[in-house]
Amino acid sequence: MLPGRGRNGHAARLSRILGTRTAWTAAGDGEFFCPGCGGDRNYQRLTGQRRFTLLGLPVLPRGETGPVVECAACRRHFGTDVLDHPTTTRFSAMLRDAVHTVALAVLAAGGAGARTALEAAVLAVRAAGFDDCTEEQLAALVEALEADTGRIAGEPCGAGLAIELHEALDPLTPHLAAVGRESILLQGARIALADGPYTTAERDVLATVGAALTICSDDVTRLLAAARTPS
Question: What pLDDT sits at residue 44?
């Protein structure tokens, strides 16, 4: 059989005559974490109109396609669910706020009056990104938190404080691996242990933190016990 003959040759010739083309229209833009580039990039949200082509020229509409997200750097297209993932900058801010909120919650459980607990909290919060955090600032924020939630130091975790924790942790949790979620809980545990054994109120707060981080109760118990063992 001569080259170009048969089914493959016929299909190749047909594809040069008839085909489809998508005309993209920008419908929005912003910044996202590009899975292709592996970093924060600008994007355009595109909607598409497909058309049949004859000899490379569009002739008949074939329907809409998309929307898709196009990276401004690599030009690759992704589904719009890629926008559900936070940018690196946003993720860092969410993690910083989560650690800060957990530290305040643990201190509000009774450790705000102990310098060792405040020192441990400051170290954790600074490591998370609040470089200028001080013991005085945390103590003042604990007082404000107690006034806002109507909670008295040493009481179990009430509804107001639980809401504060869930608001800080719920958006972050789906984007953290198990080791990352456990790390946040352990930081809270070390703050609680800085001034002595866990109190009932501290355990209650840490259990709420674990639940918000979707850590099962058995693993919360294991981690709280592990935090008591010197490394």
Answer: 93
Strand partners of residue 60: 52
Whether the CB-CB separation of 176 and 98 falls below 8 Å is answered with no
Backbone dihedral angles phi then psi of residue 87, each to the nearest 5 degrees: -70, 165
Q: Is the N-terminal amide bond of 156 cis, ω within 30° of 0?
A: no
| Cα–Cα dist 187/7, whole Å | 66
Torsion angles phi and psi, residue 26, rounded to 5: -70, 135
Both structure tokens of 124? 């954790």
| Residue burial 179-192, b: 16+ Cβ < 10 Å; e: rest | eebbebbbbbbbbb
Q: What angle do CA 164, 170, 174 make, to 5 degrees?
A: 160
One-letter amino acid for residue 32 of the chain:
F
pLDDT tens digits for range 37-84: 999 999 999 987 776 655 556 555 666 677 999 999 999 999 999 999
